[in-house]
Amino acid sequence: MSNPLDIEIEKMNGEKTTLRSLAASGSEQWIVVNVASSCGFTKQYADLQAAYASSNVTIVGFPCNQFGGQEPGTHEEICDFTSSKYNVTFPLMAKIDVKGENQHPLFTELCQSTGAGGNSGDIRWNFEKFLVSKDGSVTRFSSRDLPSDML
Predict the structure, then answer these.
(1) Which among 30, 112, 115, 150 is most buried, taking Cβ atoms within 10 Å?
(2) Which backbone phi and psi does 146 adopt, to 5 degrees?
(3) pLDDT tens-digit map of 86-96
């Protein structure tokens, strides 16, 4: 397994980066989460933002429209929504596929991990989360788990 922190990802503006490059000052861990604006779990944006603002963790959101078409917006619409409704300041990346034929390589790597509930393989729904440590180790969490449960 390669270190997920070094896999190339794309910002909404098209610029290439890595999770490691996005690290907030003092970050020891990253929470990687597939997000959607019209999901029952969308309110977790507030919890993710609180964790980003108050701990040594970098939150990185990946909008995805693969689950019930719950993230149909453009990059601009997604940013406007998350900023105005949840005051999100953590990085949101370009919309991607987190499962299936066009699964992004980052999520191919992350999905090799197994969650506490025994979940492995494809992501099952929006707001599934992965806690990544500096050494590249990954702990998987379900959509129902809040950032406060993970740290």
Answers:
(1) 30
(2) -95, 155
(3) 999 999 999 99
Which residues in 94-118 are b (16+ Cβ under 10 Å) and which e? bbbbbbeeebbebbebbbebebeee
State yes or no: is 39 an active-site residue: yes
What is d(CA 119, CA 7) in angstroms, rounded to the nearest whole number?
23
Q: What gap in Å lies between CA 143 and CA 23, rounded to an integer?
A: 23
Band of residue 111 on the pLDDT scale cut at 50, 70, 90: very high
- Separation of alpha carbons 27 and 6, rounded Å: 15
pTM above 0.70, yes or no: yes
CB atoms near residue 138 (< 10 Å): 20
Distance of alpha carbon 62 from alpha carbon 90, whole angstroms: 11
Contact between 3 and 113 (Cβ < 8 Å): no
Contact assessment for residue 90 and residue 57, using Cβ atoms and an 8 Å cutoff: no
Between CA 79 and CA 144 the distance in angstroms is: 23
Q: Which of 39, 64, 79, 111 is catalytic?
A: 39
What is the DSSP code string of 12-74? TTS-EE-TGGGPPTT--EEEEEEE-TTSTTTTHHHHHHHHHHHSSEEEEEEE---STT---S-
**Domains of the chain and CATH, by start:** 4-141 (3.40.30.10)
